[in-house]
Amino acid sequence: MRSDLQIQQDVQDELQWDAILKAAEIGVSVKNGIVTLSGTVDSYSKKIAAEEAVKRVKDVRAVAVDLAVVFPGTIDHKSDSSLASVALDALKWTSFVPEERIHLQVDNGNITLEGELEWQYQRDAAFNAVKNLQGVRSVINKLRIKPGPSAHIIKDNIWKALTRDANIEAKNIIVETRDRTIVLKGKVRSWSERSDVERAVWSTPGVLAVQDELTVSL
């Protein structure tokens, strides 16, 4: 296992590598493989990008994002009503999103999405449609997935999806079902494999929630 100092340097280098981020504005501290980001960014999408950059670094066990979204004084911050209008248009023009099923609220630049959809990819597409809009401070995704098959069938389909994915060591993963909530346990080799597992689970029809207890094996 590499030292916290080595991980810190790699995280700083990865933040510097990402063209949309200003790495000098982001503080990085590491303790026992747990990375904490602090400072300010000028958009919510940059906050998400910083977190994703950290997860690409080897030996990172967990990430705590303590980044504040602060808009520069030169930006004409949108009112909640105008931001809501722009966000609704963004959902409308995203082909994968059934915007008529989504209820959107905006409070001080914080967007909340609610409603019921058929698939996880629709939920992700709705989130991605609004996260990059100017004036967004955060996005709270409360969109639900419509109930589907029985828990037994869901678990079987998940296991088949995991075992046929070349990027996943399925033998190291335990899948538990609690009604239509999926609990993932075991170990993965990297954050990217963990993301692959989550994506495979969420792509399974009928999954309503995922509780990810997977650990990144060092």
From TrEMBL:
BON domain residues: 3-72, 79-147, 150-218
Tagged with keyword Signal: yes
Keywords on record: Signal
Pfam families according to UniProt: BON
Family annotation (InterPro entries): BON_dom (IPR007055), Lipoprotein_DolP (IPR051686), Transpt-assoc_nodulatn_dom_bac (IPR014004)
Transmembrane segments: none
Protein name per its UniProtKB record: BON domain-containing protein
